[in-house]
Design a protein that fits this description.
170 residues, alpha/beta, two-stranded antiparallel sheet, globular
Length: 170
């Protein structure tokens, strides 16, 4: 009977510590890496393919998200709001890429979250898409701030940090 108590205590402690995130490693690329180029079809009919390399010379905020991931969705909306409200954000272009598998869900999410960016895309192959694999997003969605040469200068940037970068850049 005394062993049962100890087993219970060990199981309880083990289950509680499994919920604690201790410097949880994130996947994907790191600061200092060059962001891989990609082409993606716009959600607006009749618009040509967009390429990341076409934005060289500008700072680019790449935001990868999905409507079913509350954290990435909230982060994407707050970053979009920072750039929209910045007085001089001509130097920073946001590229918002959703990995929702249904375009109808993506469009409704963009409408509800009021994401206003001409470079808002959906990758309907979801997590099995080439873009998801190219950016090694297997451990979760993220965002990257790229300098004018396509080098990652910030990863998982918060809205407050982005606001500071926009002020510094602009």
């Amino acid at each position: 009977m005394k062993y049962v108590k100890w087993i219970f205590v060990v199981l309880l402690i083990g289950s509680l510590t499994s919920f604690v995130e201790k410097d949880k490693p994130t996947g994907g690329l790191n600061v200092g890496d060059i962001a891989p180029d990609f082409k993606i079809q716009s959600m607006s009919a009749g618009q040509p393919l967009a390429e990341l390399s076409d934005m060289k010379g500008k700072y680019v905020l790449l935001s990868f998200w999905a409507s079913y991931d509350a954290h990435s969705r909230m982060q994407n909306a707050s970053l979009s709001n920072v750039l929209r409200s910045a007085s001089r954000n001509d130097n920073v272009e946001m590229v918002s890429v959703s990995f929702d598998e249904y375009q109808s869900i993506f469009k409704e999410t963009v409408r509800k979250d009021q994401i206003v960016t001409p470079t808002c895309f959906v990758e309907t192959k979801g997590e099995s898409s080439g873009l998801f694999k190219k950016y090694r997003l297997g451990r979760g969605f993220t965002n990257y701030l790229l300098d004018e040469n396509g080098v990652i200068i910030a990863k998982n940037i918060s809205a407050a940090d982005l606001s500071a970068y926009v002020s510094e850049i602009g």
